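Section 5: illustrative case.
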């Protein structure tokens, strides 16, 4: 590899002319003489070097003739025959390059961008050999800490939903039993696939433990130090110089209220205790609180009979204490997922319909129903006592808007988050724990209720292939790995004609569902910020198929950006993206994260940059409980990227969640310090 690198370096000038997008030379280009003198070296399909013959290296130059110019001078011109030969050579070079790139993508797990050129290939090979390649082409050994050139860094784009960025001087980390060209998340993202920014150094770059596979979020349901995604990286922040956040942009901080704050009778639970806790939060200048408004509580018994009593009392208390409110329209059930400490099912009348018509729920290939939320197949079907699912959501939101009009008018309700699927997230329920899913299974497609199958049948008929009106029969089960299936394996059916048709349809149903509901939400909540929660599923992200994302409804295989269309839909409605890697909380604390070829940082950077590139604001939240200095420093760094050239930062941050443990003295003092840093205020105990 070192020998190949040396030959690549010595032919640097030639390589600059070898892109896939090289324009065909015209007869007015005087530089063609030099281009024909020496043909640049090309990578062969077998990985070796294939150089064009040099026997006629000077023949083309000698064929140039002197031709008078109107100014009395002379210029060189080429015969027509030579022009055609030049074009033919260029086409041949591009054909060879295309085959090389295709082979690397399919067989080497190189996630090269669609219009990659020879520079991308060389950079990928160099990184696999342990070198560091900066965006400007500067290359140096990864272990040469002092050799890194000043000013050669690239801007960082980080959010609270990404873990600490590893340094670019990281030596390769071999994945257990798996050969992958991207030995760490920086190497993968540095190839600039899908408009992802390359991270720069940070105050914590020298920490070796940070350089492991890390979580994009502090997930839900465990301690930060034991999180397999962080790999102990929080501990490694000890004794490092902290960043001073004084004068940085103001990021509002909200606190999520307990799931069971309103009981099934729509009564406020422990109002005196809530008042005391909210006053304490107000004393440290927390901006507000977030609360779920559960469909299963408010419209529990009879269609279009809404009981908002408990929420009215809660909202009055929040207003008296002068806090803001973020409200979630929760059209899913609570319970059955990790971290759920209460059980709130869908409305009783919906359950009655489901007993006679179970196709209103998402269904897997084996026919198992998931009553966590309604199937998107009934968005336009009048199966809910004469109403469609979208009409039911619309009526619920209208009732809420009318009932709490005064709170909208005085600006106390600052944001409405619209639930669009399981856990309130825009995704399919493809990895339900209740059906036996365990990390790192790929999950299953959820398209087997009669309404979804009817939609698939129509799409297949419109395409002219009615026999495509079926789900994949070789996609494995919930706990399969990609290489164990014929659909998700490298070169599998996901990339065939049928696979591309099915995945396009499957992902489009998700986008259309979001589009329908948000269109009505904008009518109801005109003038109020609306947000949508999007979950990240980073396991198997380093495989070609991105299987877990495919079953979740994100058509994000290695040569396709599956989030651009979703973000475009959100931008159309002026909606805020609340991105979090949901599902992280489901991971067993002892799991080796690298086994699943996961890349949480790569996924986070892709989604966040896709949103920011089209000016869609991004909010986020932690998922794992966080109560210590290191964890809060971690969140602060991700909320306000240090070197982002555009000064981008989170729109808001929501802390999950209000519990007695948070109110303990030491924990609360750390939380107060975190709030000040998020607000851009100075703190007195910044480490020297």
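Designed sequence:
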């Amino acid at each position: 590899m070192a020998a190949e690198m040396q030959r690549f370096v010595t032919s640097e000038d030639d390589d600059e002319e070898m892109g896939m997008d090289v324009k065909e030379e015209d007869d007015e280009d005087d530089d063609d003489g030099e281009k024909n003198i020496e043909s640049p070296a090309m990578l062969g399909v077998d990985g070796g070097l294939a150089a064009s013959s040099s026997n006629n290296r000077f023949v083309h130059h000698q064929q140039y003739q002197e031709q008078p110019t109107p100014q009395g001078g002379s210029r060189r011109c080429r015969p027509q025959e030579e022009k055609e030969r030049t074009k033919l050579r260029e086409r041949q070079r591009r054909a060879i390059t295309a085959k090389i790139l295709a082979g690397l993508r399919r067989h080497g797990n190189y996630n090269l961008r669609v219009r990659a050129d020879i520079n991308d290939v060389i950079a990928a090979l160099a990184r696999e050999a342990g070198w560091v390649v900066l965006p400007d082409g500067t290359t140096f050994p990864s272990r040469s800490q002092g050799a890194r050139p000043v000013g050669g860094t690239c801007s960082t784009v980080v959010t609270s939903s990404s873990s600490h960025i590893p340094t670019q001087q990281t030596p390769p980390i071999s994945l257990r039993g798996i050969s992958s060209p991207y030995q760490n998340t920086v190497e993968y993202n540095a190839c600039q696939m899908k408009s992802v920014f390359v991270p720069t150094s940070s105050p914590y770059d020298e920490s070796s433990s940070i350089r492991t596979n890390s979580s994009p979020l502090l997930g839900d349901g465990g301690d930060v130090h034991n999180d397999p995604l962080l790999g102990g990286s929080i501990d490694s922040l000890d004794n490092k110089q902290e960043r001073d956040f004084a004068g940085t942009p103001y990021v509002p901080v909200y606190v999520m209220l307990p799931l069971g704050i309103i009981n099934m009778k729509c009564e406020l639970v422990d109002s005196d205790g809530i008042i005391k806790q909210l006053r304490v939060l107000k004393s440290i200048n927390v901006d507000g609180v977030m609360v779920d408004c559960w469909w299963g509580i408010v419209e529990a018994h009879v269609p279009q009979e809404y009981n908002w009593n408990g929420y009215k009392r809660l909202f009055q208390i929040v207003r008296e204490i002068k806090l803001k409110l973020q409200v979630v329209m929760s059209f899913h059930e609570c319970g059955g997922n990790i971290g759920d400490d209460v059980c709130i099912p869908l409305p009783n009348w919906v359950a009655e319909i489901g007993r006679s018509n179970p196709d209103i729920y998402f269904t897997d290939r084996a026919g198992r129903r998931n009553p966590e939320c309604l199937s998107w197949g009934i968005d336009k079907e009048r199966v809910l006592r004469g109403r469609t699912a979208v009409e039911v959501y619309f009526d619920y939101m209208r009732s809420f808007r009318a009932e709490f009009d005064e709170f909208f008018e005085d600006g106390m309700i600052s944001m409405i988050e619209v639930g669009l699927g399981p856990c309130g997230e825009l995704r399919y329920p493809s990895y339900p724990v209740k059906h036996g899913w365990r990390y790192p299974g790929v999950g299953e497609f959820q398209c087997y209720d009669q309404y979804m199958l009817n939609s698939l049948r129509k799409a297949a008929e419109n395409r002219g292939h009615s026999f495509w009106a079926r789900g994949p029969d070789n996609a494995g089960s919930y706990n399969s790995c990609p290489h164990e299936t014929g659909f998700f394996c490298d070169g599998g059916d996901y990339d065939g004609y049928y696979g591309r048709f099915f995945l396009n349809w499957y992902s489009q149903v998700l986008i259309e569902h979001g589009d329908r509901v948000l269109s009505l939400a904008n009518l109801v909540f005109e003038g109020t910020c609306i947000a949508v929660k999007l979950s990240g599923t980073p396991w198997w992200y380093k495989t070609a198929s991105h299987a877990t994302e495919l079953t979740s409804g994100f058509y994000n295989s290695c040569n396709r950006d599956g989030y651009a269309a979703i973000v475009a839909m959100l931008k159309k409605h002026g909606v805020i993206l609340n991105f979090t890697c949901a599902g992280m909380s489901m991971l067993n604390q002892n799991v080796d994260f690298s086994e699943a070829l996961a890349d949480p940082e790569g996924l986070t950077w892709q989604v966040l940059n896709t949103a920011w590139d089209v000016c869609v604001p991004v909010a986020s939240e932690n998922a794992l409980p966080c109560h210590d200095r290191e964890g809060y420093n971690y969140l602060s760094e991700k909320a306000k990227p240090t070197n982002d050239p555009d000064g981008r930062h989170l729109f808001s941050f929501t802390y999950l969640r209000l519990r007695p443990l948070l109110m303990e003295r030491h924990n609360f003092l750390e939380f107060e310090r975190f709030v000040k840093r998020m607000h851009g205020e100075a703190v007195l105990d910044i480490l020297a």
